[in-house]
Design brief:
single chain, about 500 residues, FAD/NAD(P)-binding domain, nine-stranded mixed sheet, five-stranded parallel sheet, globular
Length: about 500
């Protein structure tokens, strides 16, 4: 079977894959590349999720690409608008001609002798193989085929419909229905006010509360700057304004958690009124930013609760009954539709199997290098965004860094680059993230670990990473550059 060969293969045609394609075209025009997408269209998350109200939980001035300024009216945009922005970007840069859809990468095999990766790919026509010198994985961080749903007792007895938001379809009818949304994360906080517009009533059932904060859906500063300055200048200033505010707030929450907690709860009280039990329903047992904080655009979630169209129940589910939910407190909830907004199933590299010279790779035994590569793994980088800021901020840094790395390899005449960790035997190992969210805990062991020091640590600090990744030296004494022996020498 003849294999197509490329200098670089990008896995995934979502936000990160599009970012990677633009950087490669701009910075490495001599490199051939292709973007492989397992689904039938581009967009990743923004094409997959179709539940009512789907929107970003990061502002579009940081979620948008730095090379294509966001000019939309809303800072917190809906999913359809984001998807159109991604399609427009791909068309504008000609990346739609670089994409191969329905090409799902299931395995990657590295050969040191050949200095190349061979990718096993599933297509509607059957299996095929591509090869390349470098892989940039932009396949996201969760399993697209299925979301996470706990094993609730009694599921089979429920007379209505149970759906996970990741599997939402257009035929789901909730108008005039009693809806129960299980969960308290960003998806639940998005769904509840949207469903409450036409449902008879929406009840959000949560085991643990989540910190929430209301923010304007439109950025007044950005709109003013757009009127006064050229588009690119206004976007640049707004982007860094939002980065600075988010970074400062995150540091404040981690440094003074008790004060931050009181302030966040006071803001919720101001939205719901003094008579609402904020401590019970909005005061988590963890400190602010130990899990992702939920943004509520224009306070729509709080308005739905205050108006009585939605309510919150903080309890544990004993079982699902034929008519709804039975809770451990003894209370029951009647429902026509149950939505399990209970999280994601995390997986690295799109779930593909990886071998290095025939040996299976245990990614969980490696260390993150600059948050982009893995100790002992040659010619492979992967995008994983920030947990406390916009995904695109780190995605763009990683894509730019990989292009710089490719240039350095060419300058050195090297075909292989590997992060090498010295003295790994007594190395300190820390979890890849200190977030306590359930979906992070369930993924323990699947993702690389980190150390206390650079370059083996993932800082959740965009300004610091910006200087390091964009302007720091590529040759730092950690990367090992090499080439395979020539056939003659072998």
């Amino acid at each position: 079977m003849a294999r197509e060969h490329f200098d670089v293969i990008v896995i995934g045609a979502g936000l990160s894959g599009i970012d990677a394609g633009v950087h490669l075209q701009r910075q490495n025009p001599d490199k051939s590349f292709v973007i492989l997408e397992g689904r039938a269209q581009l967009g990743g998350t923004w094409d997959l999720f179709r539940y009512p109200g789907i929107r970003s939980d990061s502002d579009m001035y940081t979620l948008g690409f730095p090379f294509k300024p966001w000019t939309g009216d809303k800072a917190i945009a809906d999913g359809a608008t984001i998807l159109e922005y991604l399609n427009e970007t791909a068309r504008e840069y000609g990346l739609d001609r670089k994409m191969r859809f329905n090409h799902r990468v299931v395995a990657l095999a590295w050969s040191s002798d050949d200095a190349r990766w061979t990718l096993d790919i599933e297509t509607p026509q059957g299996r095929t193989q591509f090869s390349c010198g470098f892989v940039l994985a932009c396949a996201g961080y969760y399993r697209y085929e299925q979301g996470f749903t706990p094993d609730f007792a009694g599921v089979e007895s429920f007379r209505g419909r149970i759906v996970h938001p990741q599997s939402w379809t257009d035929d789901i009818d909730y108008a005039g229905k009693r809806v129960v949304v299980i969960g308290s994360g960003a998806t639940a906080v998005t769904l509840v006010p949207e469903l409450a517009k036409t449902a008879a009533h929406v009840t959000m059932v949560q085991r643990t509360p989540t910190y929430m904060v209301a923010l304007p859906g439109r950025d007044g500063v950005a709109r003013a700057l757009m009127r006064l300055l050229p588009r690119k200048a206004a976007f640049f200033l707004t982007r860094w304004k939002n980065v600075a505010l988010a970074t400062a707030f995150y540091k404040y929450c981690r440094a003074r958690p008790d004060v931050a907690r009181r302030r966040l709860l006071a803001l919720v009280r101001a939205k719901l009124g003094a008579g609402y039990d904020v401590e019970k329903h909005f005061a988590p047992p963890y400190r602010p930013w130990e899990q992702r904080l939920c943004v509520v655009p224009d306070g729509d979630f709080f308005e739905a609760v205050k108006d009585g169209r939605a309510s919150i129940v903080t309890d544990r589910i004993a079982r699902i009954t034929d008519a709804g939910l039975a809770l451990e407190s003894g209370a029951t909830l009647d429902a026509d539709l149950i939505v399990t907004a209970t999280g994601l199933i995390l997986q690295p590299l799109g779930g593909a199997r990886v071998t290095i010279d025939g040996a299976p790779l245990d990614l969980g035994a490696t260390y993150y290098y600059r948050g982009a590569m893995f100790s002992g793994v040659p010619n492979l980088a992967a995008v994983f965004g920030y947990v406390n800021a916009s995904w695109t901020l780190r995605a763009d840094l990683i894509c730019d860094y990989v292009c710089r790395l490719l240039k350095t390899m060419d300058a050195r005449g090297a075909r292989i680059v590997t992060p090498v960790r010295a003295g790994a035997g007594g190395a300190r190992r820390e979890a890849w993230s200190d977030f306590s969210s359930g979906y992070f805990a369930r993924a323990a062991g699947k993702f690389p670990v980190q150390d206390a020091d650079k370059p083996w640590r993932l800082d959740q600090n965009y300004p610091r990473d910006f200087l390091d990744m964009r302007y720091g030296a590529i040759e730092d004494g950690v990367l090992r550059f090499s080439s395979p022996p020539t056939r003659e020498a072998a």
